[in-house]
Specification:
The structure is a single chain. This protein is mainly β. It has one domain: Maltoporin, Chain A (Beta Barrel), CATH 2.40.170.20. The chain is built from six helices and 40 strands. The protein has a 22-stranded antiparallel barrel.
Length: 763
């Protein structure tokens, strides 16, 4: 039952969104007022994601979100949670989990490729869902989000691309920026602080940016004053982080048409380990969800001696030539090492008898047994070369554009059990050679685009043996080859100075979360002999555990059908309208895969397994803004996504896709009032609607929605800007949407009210 306040806020949200559908629209947003050429600046805004060398927004046949520096700063003022920025600004992005991992935070129902200056921040080989926290946002200039697959970006971009682009010096001379922030929920150990410093310099010979940040984040509390649990996959709460970023570049050649740029980034986040997850009934893995009791944290170090961490290091070298054969050449080499250690836990899937201090009785059960504490680690090392040559005037024709290029990638990933020092997921090596071509034609009010990418890759896995919990099954190594052509076509019609419409089709390619089916290889003849996970006496040792699968035929990596590629067909139509005092855009999309991939929960042990079945996803997105007065602006977005898959017969899509893939409907509103020439107030509202699917059948979900308010106040002083931010303004207690499914230690509340005070000065 919704409270009266929530019902009122929901009514207000719907009414405001309806208003935006009726008012005149313009390209001039509130943040851009005061510029003489605002409308032209918005229409001609240049982005680099998906084209690498820059392309005007009104020539891209698809929904694009560009998150500005002002929006980034507002989000920093509200929350240390980086993904909340995407949830507030991108229609098809799911609710933030407020934890380290982002499982369930999909883009239009599929996994997005996250880039940091063009470098992938995760590995599809073993997706630990921790690729959203890799830097301090103080060095980010903007975030570009391309919805749907792209011809110029390959593996991992089935849902779209999210590219974080770093700042660069713009003015001659030296500039320093210092930012400090204090944050608290006014509860024990809830205080957080952050300090960041950027030094930028530009002269006629070279330019550089050096950024550093240091932060400590306290434990989180819900609206009722209870601590929030540290997630099994890790949390950015009760943590400390350091970030160092260096970028140096020089322009040379005739007219400074060439540039070489070097960058290096090191981001390390570690738990302070003052708190650990508190489970009132650890013997039953789904006890919290069944009883709707939120998991909390207790003030004691977690079991085990190893701190969980996030350690991302990357180095890039790029070369650009803006005057090569009438076009622009871009070459980027990158080397990235991404390591993460998860929280300590005692789970069946990580047990190994030879490491356990117990004695078996006559019936084969342990006496005086305490499950082994274990932590897993994922390591991914990747090297890549991204190249392209592009021109907007092929053969002297100003209306004809061409881009050609090739990408080379080597990605090696594995997962280990840190305490036992043994392999859980064997090393996987993926190498790819992917040439692509993209053409564009401007014909009066029309722009046509078409492209083709050939993803030609190989996945190599050596012989390995699965864990004891999965029967120590021997699996022969093998090599799987992937070769797929990925076409795209699109068209934009600029109907008038105010109207434009577009339609597009694109095909995407990615690998499944390959480590999941590899580590879950088990014997085929022991299903009935496994222990009951809800039996605290016999689990996890009840029943007979085969060793080596003596009655099963030999199996190799090439026999695992779940390792086949995921191919996605994406179609989209949309329009945008630019008027005098606002703007609006809408898009409808359909994303289908004949052999999709979804993570589902194994009902026996509460762990994830990979489900490879057909998927069909459809969605509608609306965004708009309206300048009510010269000093007051209202923006809104709405997203609706639905998905279907099969329960048994792959030819019949009879089951709604759940929260791990498809997010509930959401409405986001923002009112921005400039109360003087020195300051403004921003009031935001985020509403997640209720959703009930698959009633009385497998995959049933009952998602309770929520409405949250946030407030930001900025005031410019003589030197610098003072900012007040209040997240969850009404201190609402609510369950996170991804917590509302039965899963291992999963049921958690969202964060209650948090107040932050920040100061930023540039000189």
């Amino acid at each position: 039952m919704k409270t009266q306040i929530e019902q009122s806020l929901f009514t207000f949200s719907v009414s405001a969104l309806s208003l935006l559908l009726l008012v005149p629209i313009s390209s001039k947003s509130f943040a851009q007022q005061g510029d003489a050429d605002d409308d032209d600046q918005v229409i001609e805004q240049i982005i680099v994601t998906g084209s690498r060398t820059g392309r005007a927004l009104n020539k891209i046949p698809g929904a694009v979100s560009v998150i500005s520096q002002e929006e980034i700063q507002d989000n920093i003022s509200l929350s240390a949670d980086l993904t909340s920025l995407l949830a507030r600004t991108v229609p098809g992005y799911g609710q933030s989990k407020q934890q380290m991992e982002r499982r369930g935070e999909t883009l239009r129902g599929r996994t997005a490729l996250r880039l940091f200056d063009g470098v992938p921040q995760g590995s599809p080989l073993r997706d630990g869902s921790r690729d959203s926290i890799f830097t301090d946002m103080g060095i980010i200039e903007r975030v570009e989000v391309i919805n749907g697959p792209s011809a110029t970006e390959g593996i991992g971009a089935a849902g779209g691309i999210i590219n974080y682009i770093t700042k660069s010096p713009k003015e001659m001379g030296t500039e320093f920026e210092v930012s400090t922030q204090l944050r608290s929920q006014f509860e024990e150990d809830s205080s957080s602080w952050r300090v960041s410093m950027n030094a930028m310099h530009k002269n006629e010979s070279f330019d550089f940016l050096v950024g550093a940040s240091f932060a400590e984040t306290g434990i989180a509390y819900d609206g009722d004053g209870r601590t929030i649990g540290i997630g099994a996959s890790g949390s950015d709460r009760d943590s400390q982080s350091d970030n160092l970023f260096v970028k140096v570049g020089t322009d040379f050649g005739a007219g400074d048409s060439q540039r070489i740029e070097f960058s290096h980034s090191r981001f390390l986040l570690e738990c302070q380990c003052r708190y650990s997850m508190f489970d009132e009934n650890p013997s039953v893995w789904n006890w919290h969800e069944i009883n709707r009791i939120p998991i909390t944290s207790i003030k004691m170090p977690p079991p085990g001696a190893m701190a969980s961490f996030q350690d991302f290091v990357q180095t890039t070298v790029s070369y650009t030539n803006d005057d090569l054969a009438g076009g622009t050449l871009f070459i980027q080499y990158y080397d990235a090492d991404q390591a993460m250690r998860f929280e300590s836990e005692r789970t069946f899937s990580k047990q190994e008898p030879e490491f356990m201090p117990f004695v078996l009785d006559a019936n084969g059960f342990p006496t005086d047994y305490t499950p082994l504490v274990e932590q897993s680690e994922i390591d991914s090392v990747k090297k890549g070369l991204r190249t392209s040559w592009s021109t907007d005037a092929l053969a002297g024709n100003d209306n004809l554009g061409l881009q050609v290029g090739v990408d080379l990638v080597e990605d090696i990933a594995q997962q280990r059990l840190a305490h036992q020092n043994r392999t859980w997921v064997p090393p996987m090596q993926y190498t790819s050679f992917a040439p692509f071509v993209q053409v564009s034609l401007d014909a009066g009010a029309w722009t046509f685009t078409a492209g083709l990418r050939n993803e030609d890759g190989e996945l190599d896995v050596d012989d390995y043996v699965s864990s004891w919990a999965n029967d120590r099954r021997p699996v022969g190594g093998g090599r799987i080859t992937y070769s797929d052509l990925l076409p795209n076509v699109g068209a934009i019609w600029r109907v008038s100075d105010s109207w434009s419409v577009y339609a597009s089709y694109s095909k995407g390619f990615t690998l499944p979360n390959a480590g999941i089916p590899l580590r879950n290889m088990r014997c085929s003849n022991d299903t009935s002999e496994r222990g009951n996970p809800n039996d605290p006496v016999n689990f996890p040792f009840g029943g007979v555990q085969p060793d080596g699968c003596p009655n099963d035929p030999a199996v190799t990596v090439n026999d695992i059908i779940d390792l086949e590629a995921i191919l996605v067909d994406n179609t989209e139509i949309g329009f945008s309208w630019v008027g005098t005092d606002g703007k609006i855009s809408a898009s409808f999309y359909e994303s289908n895969s004949d052999f999709g991939a979804s993570l589902v929960v194994d009902p026996d042990v509460g762990d994830f397994v990979l489900s490879r079945k057909p998927t069909e996803i459809r969605g509608l997105e609306l965004t708009g803004s309206y300048n009510i007065t010269d000093n007051f602006n209202l923006t809104a977005l709405y997203s609706h996504i639905s998905g279907k898959t099969s329960s048994s017969d792959p030819n019949v899509l009879d089951r709604e896709m759940g929260i791990l893939d498809v997010s509930p409907d959401k409405i986001v509103l923002k009112a921005d009032w400039m109360f003087s020439d020195k300051g403004n107030v921003v009031l935001g509202s985020s509403t997640i609607l209720d959703r009930h699917i698959n009633e009385n059948q497998a995959g049933e979900e009952d998602i309770d929605g929520s409405t949250l308010l946030d407030l930001t106040v900025n005031y410019r002083l003589k030197q610098g800007t003072l900012t007040l931010g209040i997240d969850n303004l009404l201190d609402k207690t609510y369950p996170l949407v991804t917590s509302q499914i039965v899963f291992w230690k999963n049921y958690m509340h969202g964060r209650g009210r948090e107040v932050s005070l920040g100061y930023t000065a540039s000189f």
